[in-house]
């Protein structure tokens, strides 16, 4: 099985996304999926110990964001911060992209990455040991058969393993595909991709205000660099998905759909408050509700979701006293200080304002969600401050607090063996 040669040529000429290995000394790029705290919550019920053996594959790794994030976090999870038990395999067609990832890994001193050149479609024939986790972001929608791609990934996934996937969202990319068609027509006489890039830049400066791409405020990737422009507007094989189409894709693989990230985007209640409308919406299954939420919002330019071979893999509060709440990329002290001044959390979902009510103990709870304290320990600390506090009252307030921050994918759960 092969991919279109035009796709490989594109990523050789314009490695994506644009990255400078020298920047590794300044910051670690993180995101969804594949953050260890996040994938543990959604795929392993919060019970995975990353100081033990863990094999991850980044299929179609590009210039390496997921590869570097996973490798660094797995190294950090080892006893000495340099462990080899957490291994990442990088796979990509582009030698130019691979060179950038290798330079990024060298800059960080990471030595827990195996680099492979090739297509994810060839995975069934590469003789690789199965993986605990597979990251595949921004790749399936560039294949002539995404279904074949997902089946190839599934062929190297462990029986208790899971995947983090990203594909484009149809409604948030309004105007992109008419613009791609327009550029194909205008660029027929261009001799190479670089000439098409110049033509595209020229056209974007002249677009009428009524143009659908010009009116879409959510798609701004092309402003970052030529690599982002090529990937967005000059790709030779590109499609987007609605929620029902994602459901069909997942069904073709035999995997279980686990969750969308962030959950709040896929809840009808986020967008409408009318009781009669909600009554009709809540009668539908979760994926049907997510489809309605997507249509209501009309601003999702991509979908991030987790898949598993197993059912019911999300961490929950069924053993609440042992649950350890942990913020994802947020500092407990900073969150706690900000919550002292408000009874609600204000946020924004790409133009949709949110005002989410919080319980009275929010600041005190947030301060103690440091990834080490379980709920029974947090309760004990708070009871010392207020002897009248009861477990049931505390747990109710935590659940309200947790719902708000978990819906935004900020607060997750993990469990440790006692």
TrEMBL record:
Mind telling me which SUPFAM superfamilies this protein's record contains?
Answer: S-adenosyl-L-methionine-dependent methyltransferases (SSF53335)
Q: Does the keyword Transferase apply?
A: yes
- Pfam family name, one: Methyltransf_12
The domain of life for this entry's organism is Bacteria
Residues covered by region (Disordered): 1-25
What are the Methyltransferase type domain coordinates in residue numbering?
A: 59-161
Q: Tell me the InterPro entries matching this sequence.
A: Methyltransf_12, SAM-dependent_MTases_sf
CDD domains attached to this UniProt entry: AdoMet_MTases
What keywords is this UniProt entry annotated with?
A: Methyltransferase, Transferase
Determine if Ubl conjugation is one of this entry's keywords: no
| GO BP field | methylation
Give one GO molecular function term.
methyltransferase activity
Which protein, by its recorded name, is this? Methyltransferase
> Which lineage is the organism of this entry classified under, starting from the top rank?
Bacteria, Pseudomonadati, Pseudomonadota, Alphaproteobacteria, Rhodospirillales
């Amino acid at each position: 099985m092969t991919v279109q040669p035009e796709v490989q040529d594109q990523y050789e000429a314009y490695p994506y996304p644009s990255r400078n290995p020298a920047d590794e000394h300044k910051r670690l790029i993180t995101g969804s999926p594949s953050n260890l705290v996040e994938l543990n919550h959604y795929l392993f019920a919060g019970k995975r110990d990353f100081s033990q053996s863990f094999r991850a594959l980044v299929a179609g790794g590009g210039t390496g964001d997921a590869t570097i994030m996973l490798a660094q976090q797995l190294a950090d999870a080892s006893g000495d911060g340099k462990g080899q038990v957490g291994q990442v395999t990088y796979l990509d067609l582009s030698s130019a992209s691979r060179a950038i990832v290798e330079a990024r890994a060298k800059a960080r001193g990471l030595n827990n990455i195996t680099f492979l050149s090739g297509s994810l479609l060839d995975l069934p024939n590469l003789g690789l040991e199965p993986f605990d986790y597979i990251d595949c972001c921004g790749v399936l929608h560039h294949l002539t058969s995404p279904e074949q791609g997902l089946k190839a990934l599934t062929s190297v996934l462990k029986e208790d393993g899971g995947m983090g996937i990203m594909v484009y969202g149809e409604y948030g990319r309004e105007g992109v595909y008419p613009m791609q068609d327009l550029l194909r027509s205008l660029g027929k006489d261009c001799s190479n991709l670089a000439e098409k890039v110049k033509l595209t830049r020229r056209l974007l400066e002249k677009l009428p205000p009524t143009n659908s791409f010009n009116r879409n405020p959510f798609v701004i990737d092309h402003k970052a660099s030529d690599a982002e422009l090529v990937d967005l507007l000059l790709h030779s094989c590109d499609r987007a998905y609605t929620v029902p189409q994602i459901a069909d894709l997942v069904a073709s693989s035999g995997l279980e759909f686990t969750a969308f990230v962030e959950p709040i985007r896929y809840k009808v209640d986020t967008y409408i408050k009318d009781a009669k409308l909600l009554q009709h919406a809540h009668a539908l299954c979760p994926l049907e509700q997510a489809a309605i939420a997507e249509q209501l919002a009309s601003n999702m330019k991509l979908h991030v979701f987790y898949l598993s071979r197993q059912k019911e893999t999300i961490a929950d509060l069924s053993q609440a006293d042992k649950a350890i709440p942990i913020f994802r990329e947020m500092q407990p002290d900073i969150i706690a200080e900000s919550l002292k001044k408000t009874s609600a959390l204000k946020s924004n979902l790409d133009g949709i304002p949110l005002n989410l009510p919080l319980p009275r103990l929010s600041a005190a709870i947030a301060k103690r969600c440091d990834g080490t304290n379980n709920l029974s320990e947090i309760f004990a600390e708070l009871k010392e401050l207020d002897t009248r506090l009861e477990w049931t009252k505390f747990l109710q307030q935590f659940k309200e607090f947790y719902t708000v921050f978990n819906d935004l994918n900020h607060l997750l759960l993990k469990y440790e063996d006692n």
